[in-house]
Amino acid sequence: MSKTDFDRRIATGLDRGEAFTFTFDGMAVTAYPGESVAAALIAHGRRKFRETLKRDMPRGLYCGMGVCWECIMVIDGRAAVRACMTVAEPGMKVETQHGLGPSPNTAPTEGSAS
Amino acid sequence: MNQADLAIVGAGPTGLSAALVAARAGLKVWVFDDNALPGGQYFRQLPKQFRKTRKTVYDKEHGRASELFTAIHHPNVTYLPNATVWENPDPGILAFAAGERSGRIEAKAILIACGASDRPVPFPGWTLPGVVTAGGLQNLVKGARVVPGERAVVAGNGPLLLVVAANLIRAGATVAAVAEAAPATARLWRNLPRLLQAPEIVKLAVNYRGLMAKAGVPYRCGETVIEARGTDELEEVVLAPIDTRGRLDRTKARTVACDTLVAGFGLNPSIEMYRLLGCDMSYNSYRGGWMPKRSDDLETSIPGIFAAGDGAGIGGVEFALIEGKLAGTVIARNLGALDERTAAIQAAPLRSRLERFRKFRVGLERVYAPPSTWTELATDDTIVCRCEDVSLGEIRAREAQGFTSAFAIKGSTRMSMGRCQGRNCLPTLAAHIAARDGIAVEQVAVPRGRPPARLVTIGDLLQEDLPAPVFPTDPHLPRGEEVI
Asked: Rounded CA gap, B69 and B37, in Å?
């Protein structure tokens, strides 16, 4: 099943403004101003946000309110950022977090893939 | 240092209603909230950039919410969004992380109004992407108008399942099953007189059930989720019946294909601030487990520290709004902004409304009393601490080596030492130990809370404008005793 051709946003009675894109592991994802990274990804069926350090288990949004830290991702090179508490921005670079993600001591290089 | 009469932690229904009352009485109030917009979970708002083109069912609380949100614009209120209160360095002082505005505040009174979050109940597969909490689903709908999937199962315990099912149906998702663990329908009639103390809430529930019936969504009582399956994401769930004696019958399990499981096993008060402050706690399984002991004036065991709303014992939004007002009133009185008589006149109708909702709550608690303590669902492979990836099997292996107390399990497995600071796994650990030892959960000694109560970044802390530390010349003397 292709996951890019549908949108799970409820359209009724809402003008979300002008759509923009950010990238998720290099692919373009549509988002609207003010939307969280988690909501935009989930709206397009992208639900696996990270793999755990010890067991490489897939994880995604769980509590949805900033309590559980399950939805952490690498955002603009910074690891362990909660996707549910982070507002999406045009051109933002969002990546699946593997384990702890990149070390804060290794500055992300432009266009690097992880 | 920043000075306030009242520092409120949390800008949900409780915090905002308390702020409004206290500010109107003339108190200087600071409100801290870790969200970008006020409202907490119940009154969670859409992004400011979204524009509503017409009124929809989601706007039914617009009136109450708008009045509440005026609190943050009151001239006596300083409102700090995206702010995390993380430490209580000295009595009456709170440290908060809020980017460039990070700092400390000294307040004559503190109100903890941190609300609640979903009770974590581990079962095999509950960590799969596609499994979300009831609160998480509600927030996606309220805060973004997004649903996480097309075919959902709603399972767990409590009235929130009805709300979740209704929201999924309204959003056009298929709800394949709603599994309520308690025999709620059978208990309904007996408890109806109590429930009718709050007819407005009963009416809501009837509406939700009507919506479910119209959409052909089955509501089964006495059934629970026992497993979620899938490789990288959720693909199906296994549901099994629970008999009237509360026994799980795995032989009669059924499998339901779905891409979303909303697991809602009730709510737990957010207790990390009380643990940090050292408030005396009590335990009430009907109202979400641990909660602070309080006086009739909502004051905790520490004078000047108050607790209200769901964070002080689950009661729902009506409770939260009334308790917030009551807390604002008694604090204003205690600090001399309201005279005794005015405060009593303001408080009397609040207390009588609280009494009415308390009766309703008793009815609700009896209808939805969980049939289980939920420790039987997890297997050795089940993750019980999500942050540190600790399985139940790992805990059992450590227990076999003699690491049996909560402290020893914590120290030997790292359970509760991860990013959530134990907020998501301490209830699980306590329930596990209680079941293992055949004791009540409240008898389990849990590790004390330590700063940071919630995760903060070093970068935020570096923004704090603190005076240079004063070190003692003799390192064996208490800090500050002997100044250089």
From this structure: 10
